[in-house]
């Protein structure tokens, strides 16, 4: 296996996963302080980096999902930090199960999959952090900016003073924002997308696919295109209900977030969570009505 491609920004190194970190891989960020070697998340590519990951003293998780903890098994002695709202998800399988919120039969299959593909191990020793937490690594500092929505604890990790922002699963992909888990929130993701433009950065690194952006206009354009996927999903829900009134189950079967050919274990659960949040917004705005029969209609 070839060494992963890399890019350097002062003390920050990015190791790119397969296809610039397209899921199930991701991009590995490493920060070289004079006192402390820190890594942000540990995607699958962490297993191919070598000493820059294997010698890490500190793991700062921007959020907790299977594809961001795939290298933790290599680092039993490193200190692991996660935002307090994602902390239980890294500490135990029960915590991760509640984080996803999928039905038991999906979770059984998912656990097998993530043990096999993501070397999953829980970290009961993980430590919680809150918004604004900082880590001084020696000549370079990391600041956590709580930007929830993808998960309840999702954070941007900003390297100062260089202004390198790891924006994680605000991944600017063509898929668009993911808010399909129990602890995801569409409303929070909307607010996060309005705020992320204000992060004082000059380099933006995503976990997946987009990789690195170094020009502010390109970043702003990518954020707006990413946010527009939310509006497109809302439009699809409205169009499906314009064809005829439908139940949530029927809308899930039509799919709003995923393509028809996608076949991951959790898709129906994620679609249900995604669509129900859109329906809640549309009902609150009186654009859709919810009947006592569980049927949704355009108003
Ligand atoms: Zn994620």
Structure description:
The chain is α+β, with helices and mostly antiparallel strands and 299 residues long. It has ten helices and 16 strands. It starts with 5 loop residues before the first strand and ends with a strand. Zinc ion is lined by residues 63, 65, 150, 169.
Short précis:
The protein contains 10 helices and 16 strands. The chain has helices spanning 18-21, 46-49, 51-54, 87-91, 93-100, 104-117, 186-195, 216-243, 248-254, 267-284, and strands spanning 6-9, 12-15, 28-32, 37-40, 58-61, 79-83, 127-129, 134-136, 141-146, 155-160, 164-168, 203-206, 212-213, 246-247, 288-290, 295-298.
Which descriptors would you attach to this protein?
299 residues, alpha+beta, 6-stranded mixed sheet, 10 helices, binds zinc ion
